[in-house]
Design a protein that fits this description.
Radius of gyration: 20 Å
Largest sheet: 4 strands, mixed
Structural class: alpha+beta
CATH class of the largest domain: Mainly Alpha
Number of domains: 3
Order of helices and strands: HHHHHHEHEEEEEEEHEEHHHH
Strand order of the largest sheet: 1-4-5-8
CATH architecture of the largest domain: Up-down Bundle
Distance between the termini: 39 Å
CATH topology of the largest domain: Butyryl-CoA Dehydrogenase, subunit A, domain 3
Helix content: 40-55%
Number of strands: 10
Strand content: 5-15%
């Protein structure tokens, strides 16, 4: 039995990391967060690598890889704080459309990168008093907040009963809705009797897509936290105080060791979540909930200690550590907070109602 990545998975990871290292330095991330550049160029490059079609069957033009493969890619995207609609258009939307069935045309468009599908799941995950959606006779009205991908061509919208509808971007009023994490585009959608095509009225389709999304978010946080740790070690090895590098100070050593010790087991946890999604249907919901909840707690700790290792420089845009800090913070709440996920895990196990 092998407890590691296969040669093909290592090659996939290396290819994505090489592309992002070459094409997405920190200055390019800044351009996106400042609104000077869209994510279209990066997404086009990832499309050439087949990333949008990772989970789409070959019959629809995709690559047909596993959830574990997708988790590996998600970790790399988090490591480089990549501004791309990966979570929405390459993960949640394809899973929902694939499980729902009869969506070959849309899946083919997603697979070749020519079509982006955003996600509006807020009403189903955690409804807000100032946002709701209603659908009647194929027409949708209301408002969705914190919708993933403000540049999507279509949106997959969930209502409070976990029904899924596909709504064209041209049918809605769309307003950018910036969050603390500027590396991921979000928006507000207002529907005024817009056409809404029913994709699924089976709650299990929504739940399947949500579970996969949560596992991939955990992988994204793992990558972001690993990058913060790597930056901390590199900074400590070159920053001097009192004529000594600060890596020689016991307090700094302990902070880096704490981060590494907490983060390393998380990689196995993320890999197991990907394996459970592929092979263990009875465990996947519980594992996805636990994995995202735990990674967000560890990620928050790493983000805090990494900033402390950098001292005052950790707060500057010159270093740029805050991009990873904010990505981890936004991931903590998106698709369910750790508190919500632990409560959900308790219900799955019969410990709560």
């Amino acid at each position: 039995m092998e407890f590691g990545l296969s040669e093909e998975q290592i090659l996939l990871q290396d290819s994505v990391n090489r592309y992002l290292s070459d094409e997405l330095p920190l200055d390019e991330v800044r351009k996106f967060t400042d609104g000077d550049e869209s994510d279209a160029r990066v997404w086009q490059g990832l499309s050439e690598l087949g990333i949008p079609g990772l989970l789409i069957p070959e019959a629809q033009g995709g690559v047909g890889l596993s959830y574990l493969d997708a988790a590996i890619v998600s970790e790399s995207l988090g490591y480089h704080v990549t501004p791309a609609p990966f979570l929405s258009s390459a993960i949640i939307a394809p899973v929902a459309l694939k499980v729902a069935g009869n969506q070959d045309e849309i899946l083919s468009g997603i697979a070749d990168g020519s079509r982006r599908v955003g996600i509006a799941f807020g009403e189903a995950i955690g409804a807000r008093a100032d946002a709701d959606v209603t659908v009647k006779n194929g027409k949708i009205s209301g408002k969705s907040l914190f919708v993933l991908d403000s540049g999507a061509d279509d949106y997959l919208v969930a209502d409070a009963k976990f029904n899924l509808y596909l709504v064209s971007a041209g049918e809605v009023e769309r307003t950018n809705l910036p969050t603390v994490d500027r590396t991921r585009s979000t928006c507000q959608l207002v529907y005024d009797n817009a056409d809404a095509a029913l994709v699924s009225n089976d709650a299990n389709v929504f739940i399947e897509a949500l579970d996969v999304g949560r596992a991939m978010q955990a992988a994204d946080t793992l990558g972001a936290a690993q990058c913060m740790l790597d930056q901390s070690v590199a900074y400590a090895m070159q920053r001097e105080q009192f004529n000594r590098i600060i890596a020689s100070f016991q307090a700094v050593k302990h902070m880096c060791a704490d981060m590494a010790g907490a983060l390393e087991p998380c990689r196995a946890m993320v890999w197991y979540a990907g394996h459970a999604l592929d092979e263990l249907p009875d465990e996947k919901r519980l594992v996805a909930s636990h994995t995202k909840a735990h990674l967000q707690e560890v990620g928050q700790m790493v983000a805090k200690k990494s900033t402390e290792v950098h001292g005052g420089m950790g707060f500057t845009d010159l270093v740029g550590l805050h991009y990873w800090f904010k990505r981890i913070g936004a991931n903590r709440q998106l698709l369910g907070s750790p508190e919500m996920l632990r409560e959900e895990a308790a219900r799955i196990q019969g410990f709560a109602t």
